[in-house]
Design goal:
Number of helices of chain A: 2
Number of strands of chain B: 0
Distance between the termini of chain B: 31 Å
Number of strands of chain A: 28
Number of domains of chain B: 2
Structural class of chain B: mainly alpha
Mean pLDDT of chain B: 81
Helix content of chain B: over 70%
CATH topology of the largest domain in chain A: Immunoglobulin-like
Strand content of chain A: over 45%
CATH superfamily of the largest domain in chain A: Immunoglobulins
Order of helices and strands of chain A: HEEEEEEEEEEEEEEEEEEEEEEEEEEEEH
Low-confidence stretches of chain A: 21-27
Number of helices of chain B: 16
Shape of chain A: rod-shaped
Largest sheet of chain B: none
Shape of chain B: globular
Radius of gyration of chain A: 46 Å
Strand content of chain B: under 5%
Strand order of the largest sheet of chain A: 2-9-8-4-6
Oligomer: heterodimer
Mean pLDDT of chain A: 84
Number of domains of chain A: 3
Helix content of chain A: 10-25%
Largest sheet of chain A: 5 strands, mixed
CATH architecture of the largest domain in chain A: Sandwich
CATH class of the largest domain in chain A: Mainly Beta
Chain lengths: 380, 318
């Protein structure tokens, strides 16, 4: 009997305890409330929940706070006031506000994650939809990967390098450009070959591609990469080179000086060469000689010149009749709307032979007069 | 009177022929007496130190102008446009050229130097009466002295202009245009006339004063006064327009710098609104005509005066 009694007592007691717990939870438990119960986030996001613990139970509540079902590698922190509370007591008809900070890691699958915040018997279900699969990687991307330009232009791209890893990284910037291209990376206005980035930061990287002047027209793919010991982010740029337009101009014997008599003519052979990558049409040959000089060309225009080929132009320089002796510059230029070349031919104007002869004769005559005067009248 | 004039013309033409063609003159049996006297005078001039010094001075002037032009060649070609119509004249007239200025000062000195003791030194030495004991006209003495000096000076100036001319051809390759050539001939002519003017002044005083020191002092003071008057501002100096220095300066300026802006004597109402431009040579000669006429006429008048006094002079006494 006593034994029975004991068992009964134990049972009663345990029921009582259970009942008392039950009633307490029913009667004294507060309710959890937060407005955003389901959020869509991307990996690496940090979520701040503001959670209210509201007590309408008619009694004072005193509840254990716990968080259940949080995925393993997610970090969280629950703060109320200046503390991280384990148990919160709320007076009847009042509320306490807590802040729950949840860091969604980068390395996370695209999925729906559910966890619960519990306060006593009250439970708040929070759902987080991770919209994409996170990575432990680095992003190297640009919005405009394709550019077009001529062979002598510079291709300037703007790319973003994003360190999605949780660590500080030192990226070495590399390019695997085809021959004939030079690649420069610029960060914050400076040319760099590597860049150091804190975890979860972005940097703008300016990429300058410069083709050599002799590059053949066409489309080029330039693979770039940002590499650390373990990570490699790739970016492929495309540069479309239209044909370059360039002209070369020289004299046939490469001599840039000549002589001419005052009032006389001098013939120069000029060689116009298409040094670019595309055909040139209607090349005009012009000269800017000193005042009152004339320069004529034969032909005055070259209709068509294929890349790499040459044409010969005969220039006739006619020196002004009133030119003073000395050196003059004759500028000769070949131009199309696309390209331009110029040379300066230094022309020494010399006195014609009869001028010199006349001068010498006059001086001789003058000397003769003086000598005559002294010889005839110098004798007593 | 007519007979005398004809003899003069004949004698002068003989003298010129003899000078230009000496062989022919020697071959002739009798040399004209005037030419004999002129050549003796030229010999005197050529042998005198003061002439040689002046000759050296003139040569140095020409060489100095040439060197100055060469040194400042680039500056000159910047200042003076090559399509300037009177580019060759600019060699003489550009702003740093000393040629015209030095010539303008040398000409009176040359004239005075060649003439100031022409008559009185002969008389002091007693050679004047000896010459006159020969069968020559008395006026040949004065004429031969004048002609000899003028001939030498003309020759020298011609030589000088020829050297400048030739140098312009050789060094710049620029010769004168016909207009410039004529202007230079006019310049040469006027300069010779100007020397003749001062030579006549000197001859005149040498005939009046017995001491050559008196005549040279008078000549120099005349030159000084005229120079000072000519150096005054234009408004004042132009009121003494019988000043030979002023007349020569104006005539040369008008002929050698034919832009209107160079002509101080063109009244404002004529020049108003007229851009500086080149006048043709005949217009310049018309503008300078008064001065040119005055220089020639003054020269002739002075010679006539000295002739008048010399012919009436007592020359036997020392």
């Amino acid at each position: 009997m006593i034994k029975k009694n004991i068992w009964l007592k134990v049972f009663m007691l345990s029921v009582a305890v259970m009942l008392s717990g039950l009633t307490a939870s029913v009667k004294g438990s507060a309710t959890l409330y937060t407005p955003y119960t389901r959020l869509a986030v991307s990996p690496g996001t940090s979520i701040d929940y503001t959670i209210d613990l509201v007590n309408h139970s008619g009694q004072m509540s005193n509840d254990e706070i716990s968080i259940v079902g949080m995925p393993d590698n997610w970090k969280y922190n629950l703060v109320s006031g200046a503390y991280s509370p384990r148990r919160i007591s709320v007076l009847n008809g009042e509320k306490k506000t807590m802040t729950l900070k949840v860091d969604v890691p980068y390395q996370v699958e695209k999925n729906t994650y559910t966890f619960y915040v519990r306060a006593g018997s009250s439970s708040l279900q929070l759902v987080v939809d991770v919209t994409e699969t996170g990575s432990n990687e680095t992003e190297f991307s640009t919005t405009q990967a394709n550019m077009q330009g001529s062979a002598n232009s510079t291709f300037s791209y703007r790319a973003a390098l994003k360190n999605r890893t949780a660590q500080k990284q030192l990226y070495s910037l590399r390019s695997d450009a085809p021959r004939g291209w030079s690649v420069t990376f610029q960060v914050d206005g400076r040319s760099v070959t590597s860049v150091e980035m804190e975890a979860n930061t972005n940097k703008d990287v300016q990429i300058e591609l410069k083709p050599s002047a002799q590059i053949v027209a066409g489309s080029y793919k330039i693979p770039l990469s940002a590499v650390t010991g373990s990570i490699s982010a790739k970016l492929e740029l495309e540069a479309v080179v239209t044909g370059s337009h360039e002209l070369g101009l020289r004299t046939e014997n490469d001599v840039l000086s000549t002589t001419a008599n005052k009032g006389g003519k001098r013939t120069l052979k000029l060689v116009v060469r298409n040094t670019g990558a595309s055909e040139l049409r209607n090349i005009e040959i012009k000269a800017t000689p000193p005042a009152h000089w004339e320069v004529n060309f034969e032909p005055t225009q070259i209709d068509q010149l294929a890349p790499g080929s040459e044409a010969t132009v005969t220039a006739t320089v006619k020196v002004s009749n009133r030119a003073v002796l000395g050196d003059y510059q004759v500028n000769v230029e070949a131009r199309t709307p696309e390209a331009y070349a110029k040379i300066t031919v230094r022309t020494s104007v010399e006195a014609p032979f009869y001028y010199i002869l006349l001068g010498i004769v006059i001086i001789a005559a003058a000397l003769y007069i003086v000598v005559f005067l002294f010889r005839k009248f110098g004798r007593r | 009177m007519k007979q005398i004039l004809l003899t003069y013309v004949h004698n002068i033409s003989n003298a010129v022929t003899a000078f230009l063609l000496p062989e022919r003159a020697y071959n002739e049996k009798a040399e004209p007496p005037l030419w004999v006297m002129v050549s003796k005078e030229i010999t005197d001039i050529v042998h005198s130190w003061r002439f040689l010094i002046l000759f050296a001075l003139i040569i140095m002037t020409a060489v100095g102008s040439v060197i100055a032009f060469e040194l400042q060649y680039s500056e000159i070609t910047r200042d003076i446009k090559i399509d300037d119509k009177i580019f060759f004249l600019r060699i003489f007239t550009w702003k740093n050229s000393i040629f015209l200025m030095v010539m303008q000062y040398l000409c009176p000195v040359l004239g005075i130097c060649l003439g100031f003791d022409a008559i009185n030194s002969e008389q002091t030495k007693g050679t004047l009466s000896r010459v006159l004991s020969q069968p020559v006209y008395r006026d040949y003495i004065l004429l031969s002295k004048f002609l000899a000096a003028l001939l030498v000076v003309s020759l020298l100036f011609t030589v000088l202009m020829m050297i400048m001319f030739a140098w312009g051809l050789l060094s710049l390759g620029v010769g004168p245009t016909l207009d410039e050539f004529l202007r230079l001939l006019w310049y040469l002519f006027l300069t010779i006339v100007y020397v003749a003017f001062w030579l006549n002044i000197a001859l005149f005083f040498s005939g009046i004063f017995r001491q050559s020191s008196a005549s040279v002092l008078t000549c120099i003071s005349a030159w000084l006064i005229f120079s000072v008057l000519a150096a005054l501002p234009f408004e004042i100096s132009s009121s003494f327009s019988l000043n030979p220095i002023f007349a020569y300066q104006q005539a040369i300026m008008i002929l050698m710098t034919p832009e209107l802006e160079g002509l101080l004597k063109v009244p404002i109402e004529y020049a108003g609104g007229v851009r500086p431009t080149l006048l043709p040579l005949n217009q310049n000669i018309i503008i300078a005509g008064g001065f040119i006429t005055y220089l020639i006429a003054g020269s002739v008048a002075l010679f006539a005066m000295s002739y008048y006094f010399f012919m009436r002079r007592e020359i036997r006494s020392r």
